[in-house]
Amino acid sequence: MFDIIKKLAQTFGPSGNEKKVAEVITGLIKDKVDDVKTDALGNLICVKKGAGKKIMLAAHMDEIGLIVSHIDEKGFLRFSNVGGVHPWGIVGKRVVFENGTTGIVWYEEDKDDIKNLKFDKMYIDIMAKSAQEAEKVVKVGDMAVFAGDTILQNGRVISKALDDRIGCAVLVQMALNAPETDNEIYYVFTTQEEVGLRGARTAAYGIVPDMALAVDVCMTGDIPNCKPMAVRMGDGPTVKIKDGSVISHPHVKDRLMDAAEKNGIPYQLEVMQHGGTDAGSIHVTAGGIPSGGVSIPSRYVHNVAEAVDMNDVENAVKLLEAFVK
Amino acid sequence: MNECSELLKKLCNLRAVTGRENMAAEKIAEVLRNYCDEVTIDPFFNVIGLKKGQSEPPGNVLVTAHYDEIGLIVTGIEDSGFLRFAAAGGVDPKAIGAMEVIVHGKKDLFGVIGAKPPHLISPEDKDKGIKMEEMRIDIGYDGEKAKELVSVGDMVSFVNPARELMNNRLAGKSMDNRSGVAALVELLKELKKLHHDDNVYVVATVQEELGLIGAICASYNIKADLGIVFDVCHGDMPDAPGDETFPLGKGVAVAVGPVLSKKHTRGIIKMAKDENIPYQVDPEPGDTGTEAAAHAIAREGIPTILLSIPAKYMHTTVEMVSTDDVTAAGRLAARYIAGRDKA
Amino acid sequence: MKEQLEILKKLTSLDGVSGDEGAVRDYIISLVRDHVDDYYVDNMGNLITYKKGSGSGLKVMLDAHMDEVGLMVTKINSDGLLKFQTIGGIESRVLVGKRVRVGEKGVPGVIGFKPIHLQSKNERSGAVDKKNLTIDIGAKDKEQAEGMVEIGDRVAFEYDPVEFGDNKLMAKALDDRVGCAVLIELLKHDYECDIYGCFTVQEEVGLKGAKTAAFQVNPDIAIVLEGTTCYDVPDTKEHSMSTICGKGPALTIMDRSVITDRELVTHIVKVAEKNGIPYQFKKTISGGTNAGRIQVSGTGVKVAVIAVPCRYIHTPVSVMDISDFENMLKLAKKVLESLPVSMTLYREQGGIENV
């Protein structure tokens, strides 16, 4: 399964540019599902047919990144954020464009306290000597993502873009396992989650499932002096109770907890105060779709390197398989 | 005590923390059944009452009032047995110190939100606001027992039985927006006396405090040609801007603004004048922050009226309304539905 | 061009504060009714026009919003002065000393301000507090004022358009009457695709009208025609200028409401380059447009935004370069004319399609 995670995490796909990720996923699971579709927003919708309930499982393909807003005469690139990026967290980090062009993020050094750093005082250096040279490889409006390997160490994965390629990997693995069920399963790989939960909305509108789960990452409370949160990496996937976008439907939440209890799958309960997931937008689509979520506890979410525990990942697959039975 | 006060007291004492309205849905349905032809509960626990119209084919009027209340959600259980919590809905941390609560765990547990005694607060800290993450709920059990009875994600509601004050005023928790639900009942009572062509769907909605979620679902599912929303607006308060607050007991506030139907708003104001029902005008330059914002843009758009009941001390446990305004809201809406011009 | 410019000037002189777009809508109907196959005004007040194409059946929604930012009377003081709040985003510093029209009767008024002589030291250096401003219609007391205005009355700026300088136009409400003027002109021509020209309401109070319009039209593609922010005045670093006046219509890649469709924007760029029409990309990602609402309507819509850069947007003295308006017209027309040929694939991809 690590190979799937690595392949997905290393594929370029900032919000609005998820096509390559969709192609990789299609390649992996198209033989295991009955139908593969895309819609106008680029959502990839894979259906395993069944006569029972329509269950939508959503993981978003997009990752956070940067967008070039201006190329100055010396060839430095100015940028804005795509999704939630901390200015101080990316100083000195490598970014890479779709065509492989690599850059270093830095800031105008004469500026005061780095805590107050804003994107308009920062730039990307792609080693171009002039605007003309820069424009040969990068245009205004092009997006870049963070660069970094995907590695497995002590049973835990360190990588860029685990939010939410790890969710994609869970759904891919599940589709490959092809769990037996009468229910109709929609494996939905959504777009533009990081900029406002957009893709999930149109995908859900096209499907109108009986219930839906967002499979995403959540924060943990197990690192030194962090904000308290009753979730630890390695203690199992979470059953979402609440995040910034949704309070899970009680029946969906109960069904998940039952599935975990009956099958002896470890799980934790998640109350995340900030940050939304696709469940938030699916919930209110087409007259209301009961929604909830399963999350992979993840440290350092929205940073250049994020981390998850393989046990949580594997148990998330088991939990979802038990849920859809 | 008048009938409306009696009902509103009963409604306020129900517990329906936003997102977990299943706690009270059946009880709300019971109330509506006395006045409706059909009552159903939808998958989101919106309680939908239908009072059938007398023309064929009837138009559809959608009247909503949310019945969810703000509360807290347990985020952690400490080894000492104290509970950490976060807000469910817009709770002001300054307003919940030393408050009685019910924790909806394996069973309902009484608890209090503790507060530091004044003797132990340093002079510097006295001027600072308190943050929710610094507060704890004390349910009187040790860590082991607390963890057995309470889970992360359990909801917490405030305790404060509604009490009667002078001049038909009631104070208590959840006047926002059980007074709107009481207005639904007043509307239904009034409709019984009148001939009305349209099907009237009265919906006690859920999850308003989380972003109008119940209303978004209801206004999509019930295809209406007129929407009416009952909610609360700010009552007159010292220190508050005079154009955003309204005196209690002077009638329901009829909102005017971009997202509200000009035709129907004018119509209902005329109706209030003609029928001598007290009203006030509430200017709403934005999207109102109420369910009217959801109805207005549902499907093809539902022309919508917003009627607000002035409430003092909003989002505290002593929200105060005048039941005269509640009755006025219900009567006015009923008269308008019965007499509206369909042209 | 003369005619289109006169239409634009007339459009900006009409009042259409959000929720009160009737006067603008009536004028637009009078201009387009003979050029479209059908039109109607929906529940919210959107004007939806339909023009059948000669070919592919590709459904293209064109959106321009009719509403403008303004004020609303919220209280009548005992001295006859009117308290107000803003509708849409207006900075308090641009309100001082402005000419306004109140309500449907257009009662003339001004926004007064405490003379500098009487201001305290703090008041002199501090920001203007909107709460201290009132509209003066000259009423001698509350009773007289109540005879002229009502609480809830919309208030619009009273500024006539002026052509000045090197091909510049100053007017109120260029955002988005300039889009309306472009859309009116576009509807006068014939295309292969089916055109739904939507003049929408309540954009400035949260992109409201576009939501119900898109729900009704259910298009394959939508192009939003806008007036956008432009800040190319001295002391702004080049990379902070969102657009530059006179450098052609601006295309949005991303803002707070939307990431536009990559293929559609690429197509527009190709059309511009092929026809030698200048264009620019909007450089900042602030603000939002109706594209955000339309994109997520139904099963999703491919969207793009084409906008005329407007300096001092959301003030009564917005300024645009007339050449940007002309080029936007040219570009939008060429894009529509070329859609059926190069975009047959979109028809297949619109909605849900098998890979």
Describe this structure in words.
The complex is a heterotrimer of chains A (325), B (343) and C (355). Chain A has 325 residues and is an alpha+beta fold. Helices cover 26% and strands 27% of the residues of chain A. Chain A has an 8-stranded mixed sheet with strand order 1-2-12-3-13-16-14-15, with helices on both faces. Chain A is globular. The two termini of chain A are 22 Å apart. In chain B, 27% of the residues lie in helices and 26% in strands. Chain C is α+β, with helices and mostly antiparallel strands and 355 residues long. Chain C has 2 domains: 2-68 and 172-354, Zn peptidases (Aminopeptidase, 3-Layer(aba) Sandwich), CATH 3.40.630; 70-157, Peptidase M42, domain 2 (Elongation Factor Tu (Ef-tu), domain 3, Beta Barrel), CATH 2.40.30. Helices cover 28% and strands 25% of the residues of chain C. Chain C has 10 helices and 18 strands. In chain C, strands 1-2-12-3-13-16-14-15 form an 8-stranded mixed sheet, with helices on both faces. In chain C, strands 5-4-9-6-7-8 form a 6-stranded antiparallel sheet. The radius of gyration of chain C is 21 Å and the shape is globular. Chains A and C meet through strand 1, strand 4, strand 5 and helix 5 of A and strand 18 of C. Strand 1 (35-38) of chain A pairs antiparallel with strand 18 (353-354) of chain C, so a sheet runs across the interface.
